[in-house]
């Protein structure tokens, strides 16, 4: 019991220089802030902990570490083992506009060194942030130069460290965080194969699994022609469309954003049909299917039937009674008696 | 809800995808199109559509004209909206934000307008927007006043509420008084603009003060009840769209018909609020006569964004699929969409594409559960047929564009 619980808690460190945009990023992704609201945030003092329940079995233990020199000094000395012990992921945020890039990298190296001592198996993601402030034609080049320079300073993590250009003003933020989350999900492979099966059964062009509160993509399945869709950034775009819509609904219905969820959204046109519906307690499933009323209805029924299967995946491999009851509510009671995943035509 | 970047990602020219039959070869392919700024795309669309806009086909004479005005002399039937006001009051910003979908934050970089900028809107009804430089004196004898004001639909006078406005009011009054002689039917719409920067109290005071001063001056000159309306606007929220909606609605001769249709639809289907939107400009051309609040307008307008964005992503041109059964069956002809909410009882949002330009959006009431959607569908179909008789141009357009 105790061990399963520890497995579920994944410790994520969010670090970087003061003012780099760590807390802004966190507020937008996890706390339903709008990009322009983040200017209200003050400096982070010491470490702000937040526990984010993600996909049921995954609990993110996010440490937003204040970046002022005094705090960093403290992390590296007195709190060294406390901060850097048993870390799953380190996210280091660089400000592209920083005047002291060299100094940032030195500080980064120190942190990397501490990390390799205490949690050598951790994964490092570097986000080069505020890319919107760079002229668009210079972006790619500047990003690559910086990334290469930082990689050289990454010591033991040199080969694994991943870089993403980000900005809170476009979907690049979602793109980076989707990758991070994907790395953290323990049973991504199982979810993917189940999703693939589901896609075959309902003849979907594309299925995308989104986490409910953050609207981040967990995984997706694309079949046949749809892989030629010219919008390669569509997953992030839908993330940000959903997020924006959620905020708009929250604002106008006077509900707090964390519960202003839609139960279902359908769009039917002559070229495609699309719907997003709740799959499990923590996930939404978006499906793009061929334009046919029958396929559409069959797909909806099948997704309703497959819910318990995903709910099982959602909880740990060892189901606990209390949890299961909680999910039974979300999985439409009666349907659970049916054989899971069986196609219903 | 003002997500700057998303506004920019919405390339406003996309209608629902299956309507893109007029995509000529010069039209951008769906892929790279999103890399271009919205304004440029809009311009391209104008260029594509313009031949039709300039020379309305005559083979089918519309039974009801679309937006011809009392002042227009049997001309091209395109009402003009004149944007006037002091320099730096925000005229060009307004026209860029409303008609070119420029993100509001980028209007800072607009240059001063030095000559009259004419822009044609080709939508459910054609109209022109003339953006005037602030420093011109229109009643200088050198100006061809008749040419400017002859076919005018509405004069929009923009006043910067954050600036000293006495001179603006003086010039507005001079203009109104001058116009009263020759063109008494012109609607004068005063936008008290940039109110986003003012506190609630101060905003109200300024607004009332401006109304008071304009009306006093006019009645001193013997014009009681001049056709002047006032609006508080800002480009940073939806108020500018709301104000434009009201202005445009006055220019639609069929408005009472539309409202009656919407009213009967609402009462039959227990709809809380129904809007008829112009998809591209997100101006609503009619709503039922129940009280309006800006909140429901904003929900609907954001909802259009969602539908358009998703349609853009999945509505790309697929190469013809191998001849299986689904290809024959083509799903809906008109896009429709609905959103049900989790925590709001039975309320839901319903969108139905009416024609190339218009979409109907309904906020459904508590006593109209989603199970009864089939009935709503049917009634909306009836409404759609009725609307076709009101705006005959939708069908007229189809053959014309395909041959061009």
From TrEMBL, chain A:
Record-linked InterPro entries? Gtr1_RagA, P-loop_NTPase, RagA/B
> Gene3D superfamilies per the record?
3.30.450.190, P-loop containing nucleotide triphosphate hydrolases
Q: Does the keyword Ribonucleoprotein apply?
A: no
GO function terms (MF aspect): GTP binding; GTPase activity
Q: Which SUPFAM superfamilies does the record cross-reference, listed alphabetically? A: P-loop containing nucleoside triphosphate hydrolases (SSF52540)
Q: Which GO terms describe its cellular component?
A: fungal-type vacuole membrane; Gtr1-Gtr2 GTPase complex; nucleus
CDD domains recorded for this chain?
Answer: RagA_like
**Pfam family membership, one:** Gtr1_RagA
- Biological process GO terms, please? cellular response to starvation; negative regulation of autophagy; positive regulation of TORC1 signaling
Q: Which UniProt keywords apply?
A: GTP-binding, Nucleotide-binding
Give the family from UniProt.
Belongs to the GTR/RAG GTP-binding protein family.
What the protein does comes down to:
GTPase involved in activation of the TORC1 signaling pathway, which promotes growth and represses autophagy in nutrient-rich conditions.
- How would you summarize the oligomeric state and partners of this protein? Component of the GSE complex.
> What is the recorded name of this protein?
GTP-binding protein
Source organism of the structure:
Aaosphaeria arxii CBS 175.79
From TrEMBL, chain B:
Main localization (coarse): membrane
Mind telling me which CDD domains this protein's record contains?
Answer: RagC_like
* Pfam families reported in the protein's UniProt record: Gtr1_RagA (PF04670)
Name a biological process GO annotation: positive regulation of TORC1 signaling
Where is region (Disordered) located?
Answer: 1-37, 52-79
The protein's annotated catalytic reaction(s) are: GTP + H2O = GDP + phosphate + H(+)
Q: Which GO molecular function entries does the Swiss-Prot or TrEMBL record give?
A: GTP binding; GTPase activity
Q: Which InterPro entries match?
A: Gtr1_RagA, P-loop_NTPase, RagC/D
**Signal peptide interval:** none
Q: Provide the protein's localization.
A: Endomembrane system
**Can you name a GO cellular component term?**
nucleus
* Keywords on record: GTP-binding, Hydrolase, Membrane, Nucleotide-binding
Q: What exactly does this protein do?
A: GTPase involved in activation of the TORC1 signaling pathway, which promotes growth and represses autophagy in nutrient-rich conditions.
Instruction: Give the quaternary structure.
Output: Component of the GSE complex.
Record-linked PANTHER family = GH16429P, RAS-RELATED GTP BINDING RAG/GTR YEAST
Q: Which family does it belong to?
A: Belongs to the GTR/RAG GTP-binding protein family.
Q: What's this protein's name?
A: GTP-binding protein
